[in-house]
Amino acid sequence: MEILRTAHGPTPHPQLDEVLSALRRHWLGIARRKYPVLRDEADDAIQTALVKLLAAVARDEPKDVDKAEVWARSIFVNTALDLIRERHRHDHRRVYVGQWGDDPEDALRRDLPAEGPAPEEAMAGRERLRIVARCVESLEVARLKFVDGLPDKEIARRQRLTRDGVAGQLKRFRKALRDRLREPE
Question: Which of 58, 72, 102, 127 could bond 98 through an S-S bridge, CB–CB 3.0 to 4.6 Å?
Answer without folding.
Answer: 102
